[in-house]
Amino acid sequence: MTDQLVADRDSRPRAADAALRRRAAAVIPGGMYGHQSAGPLPPEYPQFLRAGFGARVWDVDGNEYVDLMCSYGPVVLGHRHPAVEAAARSQAALADCQNGPGSVLVELAELLVGTVRHADWAMFAKNGTDATTMCCTIARAHTRRRRILVARGAYHGAAPWCTPRLAGVTPEDRANLGYYTYNDLASVRAAVAEAGADLAGIIVSPFQHDAGFDQELVDPEFARGVRSICTDAGAALILDDVRCGFRLHLGSSWEPIGVLPDLSAWSKAIANGYPLAAVLGSDPFRDAAASIFVTGSFWFSAVAMAAAIATIGALREENALAAMERAGTALSAGILAQAAERGLEVRYTGPPVMPYLTFAGDRDYSLASTFAAAAVRAGVYLHPRHNWFVSAALTDADIAQALAGTDAGFAAVEARLAHHD
Ligand SMILES: Cc1ncc(COP(=O)(O)O)c(C=O)c1O
Questions:
Q1: Domain 13-77+319-420 maps to which CATH number in 3.90.1150.10, 3.20.20.70, 3.40.50.300, 3.30.2350.10?
Q2: pLDDT tier at 152 (50, 70, 90 boundaries)?
Q3: Ligand 1 pocket mutation, candidates 37, 127, 129, criterion most atoms within 8 A of CB
């Protein structure tokens, strides 16, 4: 659709966003990179956002949205949560980036070791990709083997070994990977056999949340099977909890099914939006973790660590996981009722706190895009091709507005289907 057509059917102010996009096109390759580059988001979406509070965000033109993406996961308690902001401010008043870490490094490591059952130690970084990459490096250092098995289609970050786009990636970057199918133990066994004596580890996400596909919860038998395969082979079980960590459980996301990894990768929600990642591990992997060289200019920054300590405190004190579950369940019930009322065949998959909506037969995502475009015009920010995220800040009024937005989305899909009949 042309910019003019978009503008014609959209009464929201868009001028500031359009002006920033024009300027970005001149100085940012492609105008934007990563998951917001040309692709999944319909043109109705603002590229640039100005503010956030609780479960609401505002774009640079002042349009307000109920936020169902939570910055793609980091915002778990809501934007600018008072306790987290206060902790970050008081640390910032002392210092952030120094020659060495502050005491918060140890305090946070102790807190995580006390919170996540499989963890005996913690290391910190900045992004989820840092954490998943470190887990692989530690697994290799521990086993002195090379092969890491990944699920086909899973996202573990944007480094050459795992980025979904192959531009600039060499076959050598992927040479030590093997592939299995999520929830399919036979495929894991086949990949393990292929790796032979070179198996260093298996990386797995808590459930299957590949972008653009219906989500699939983990089969506990699969999780237990992968655990025992790793134990038998002396390889590391690596849980990539970057996306789910602290939304599904306060421990690691497989604690409820009793499966403990050797190493886990965390980022996103652990500091309610402050830049932080963590690798947590069990004692047998401690020496290997100590042996690798990893660091970064900002990896000891104290503000994000103070924010993480406050985030974990607030998640507990406010019973935030139960609040998210309640909000996610209300959203799910409302959305499924709306779709049923209009006779639209949808699938709403994944846990209520990280749902994803697809339309039957919508292979090119055109119905999902129609839905998302109408929803964003009606004031709810969700995503046509990526799972959504529920935060603990969603109030009943937020949920009501979100449902008004999704209803506008379904109305647009209904109109489109009627038009095509
Ligand atoms: C499961 C998973 N692993 C790793 C990553 C990479 O995290 P980051 O984008 O912080 O590098 C992501 C990011 O979306 C993720 O969802």
A1: 3.90.1150.10
A2: very high
A3: 129
Ligand 1 shell residues, CB under 6 Å: 72, 127-129, 132, 155-158, 205, 240, 242-243, 267
The CA 404 to ligand 1 mean position distance, Å, reads 30
Ligand 1 atom, smallest distance to 157 CA: 6
Whole-structure pTM value: 0.97
* pLDDT, tens digit (0-9, with 9 covering 90-100), for 68-95: 999 999 999 999 999 999 999 999 999 9
Residue 128 CA: which ligand 1 atom is closest? 7
Q: In what order do the strands lie in the sheet with 64-67?
A: 49-53, 56-59, 64-67, 380-381
Six-digit token string for 109: 């490591």
Task: Kindly state the helix (H) or strand (E) to which residue 121 belongs, with its residue range.
Answer: strand 121-125
* Cα 88 to Cα 304: distance, rounded to the nearest angstrom: 7
Q: Where are the domains of the chain?
A: 13-77+319-420, 82-317
Ligand 1 centroid, distance to 243 Cα (angstroms): 6
Distance between Cα 197 and ligand 1 center (Å) = 29
Query: Residue 200 is inside which H or E element, if any?
Result: strand 199-204
Q: How far is the CA of 155 from the centre of ligand 1 (A)?
A: 7
pLDDT averaged over the chain? Answer: 96
Give the number of the atom of ligand 1 that is nearest the alpha carbon of residue 205: 1
Q: What is the DSSP letter of 216?
A: B
Return d(Cα 79, Cα 66) in angstroms, integer: 11
Q: What angle do CA 141, 143, 157 make, to 5 degrees?
A: 60
Say yes or no: do domains 13-77+319-420 and 82-317 share a fold.
no
Q: Give the residue from 334, 322, 348, 155 showing the smallest Cα distance to 247.
A: 322
HEC assignment per residue over 292-306:
CCCCCCCCCCHHHHH
82-317 sits in which CATH class? alpha beta
